Amino acid sequence: MAVTTLAPPRAGGNSPRRRGKAARWLAVLRQPIGASAGLLVAALLVLAVIAPWLWSDRADLVDTDQMLLGSSAAHWLGTDNLGRDLLARILVATRLSIGLALTATAITVVVGLLLGAAPVLIGRRGGRLVTSVITIGVAFPGLLMALFFAVIFGVGERGAVLAIGLAGAPAFGRLSQTLVAGIAERDFVAAARVAGVGRIRLLVRHILPNIAEPLIVNATIGAGGALLAFAGLSFLGLGVQAPGYDWGRLLGDGLSGIYVQPTAALAPGVAVVIAGLAFNLFGEAVAKGMGLSTTSGRTRPLRAALKKLRGGAKRETDGDVVLDVHDLSVTFAGADGPVRPVRGVSFTLRRGEAVGVVGESGSGKSLTAHAVARLIEETGQVDGQRLEFLGSDLLGGTVRTHRDLLGTSLAMVFQDPMTSFNPTQRIGRQLAEVARQHQGMTWNKALARAVDRLRAVRVPAAERRSRQYPHEFSGGMRQRAMIGMGVMGNPALIIADEPTTALDVTVQREVLGLLQAIRAADHVAVMLISHDVTVVGQMCDRVMVMYAGRIVEDLPASELGPAARHPYTRALVAAVPNMRTDLRRPLAVIPGRPVLPAQVPVGCAFAPRCPLADDRCTREDPPMVTDPAGRRVACWHAGEPITRDAGNARTREPLGNLTFGNGK
Questions:
Q1: Hey, how many other C-beta atoms are within 10 angstroms of the C-beta on 295?
Q2: If 224 and its partner were Cys, which of 22, 256, 276, 627 is the partner (CB 3.0–4.6 Å)?
């Protein structure tokens, strides 16, 4: 297959996304308030740079003959008690006032981001402790906290900057925490974790770009608050100390003579108000223009051998086995005790084999796949007698110890193609990150590999498409690109979790055909999770039926019909209409509701909905039994014909004519 070298995307590319961002900023500046506040902020920043050069000598000139004079042509705002020009001093104080406020804002932003991103950086357990600290911090008024820290750090510029910066950190941390949590649950973040992206890189490359705009807006507004707070500390004598001066210091010095020279106190106060309003109004204008709310290194090369991973011992296994799972369970803490949405799941998946997993929503299909891919949240616990992928124990160690293996040999295709990619990065760059992370490729080679993989999954004009953003792809194209990301390495297993749910029938057929082609070409094992029994029956070799967190039947796909032995499997098949369905009769449905993970009954979980259930079913949970042909089923009445009442007689009917319930 031909490989085309692709230059890295330029930061200044004239893409629709960049044009959209530029248009939004221009829209902000077109607003009267936005334009006025923007010009005022720009003027303040320019003044902060040039004022000390132009007026420092005049501001520091002591003239005892000119003390406490009123406004005049020589001194527009008068003089202070040492005869120094008030206007010059206010202008010169702009640099220190603005500079200290921006420094304090920077501290607030950095510390707040670290607090808000703690669940991503140090895990959910440590994140909960940090969340408690944030909750306590936001319970106290900001000015009170600033005074508290000012006493700890001492008077002076440094102490005041630290005090104001740390006092604002809890509120900014709460905002960051909310925004980070919203992005961290997206599928493209999960995909990055599967690819082995480290926590810091995950935060910097995938999460922060998606929350940058609201953070910038709130930081801009926060700068105005920091300016006012700093002036307050200097006014109280806790901030800038003589001979230095900022607006707060000038206000405090002028207050003593306010009845003799009121301008000495009023002018610095007006400067503080104008500057604070400028930052706040500009931030509000940016928020309004963008539709936001204001309330709220080097990569490691691929290991030469994946035969032994840290934290997990390898045992001798059949070389044809890709995934070996035995007695797998996933447990979460619940209000009334532990909840196990996955209970004792066991199966084996071999090279080139396609296994379908079907069942109603909440049956544990996706959680089983996520447990295999090490994507279960830290609040959940994955246990089992065995969970081995390519002979390596995934129950031992952490995700970091298995990142190379999972990043190159396991591919995840998620349900929603729109959330499977980071919307702030180009498609090619996201695919290339896998090669950079695990194969040590340069950007040029990694991007060329990305184009090659896009071409392999039948994306037309692959080189041009690699430079586009996810929103420029259709749903089917995004799903193909997601599969392309999975085959950036050499996957031995592709887990496709509802890969065609959001797609129309034509595109669905193309995506499934693509998975089949990859499977045939590279002898890749496929685990297809779906609600569509028909699709699974056509595409897979074997079907596992899950109910209430466990596998209730494992049978060849060719027998997914009348030959199925578990009542739940037959109910699922009967609920799918076909061309032979009798339209004069109600459509077949499964009566009742699926079992909640926290309310699994004693005995067989399907018993309350099963037409074959008896007293034994409600007392004893049936074990999984394997017949000589390798088919497995967990049912006390496996293979028995379904009976239903017809008047006063008990009749037996074939599966095709059976109605499991009327849905009432």
A1: 7
A2: 276
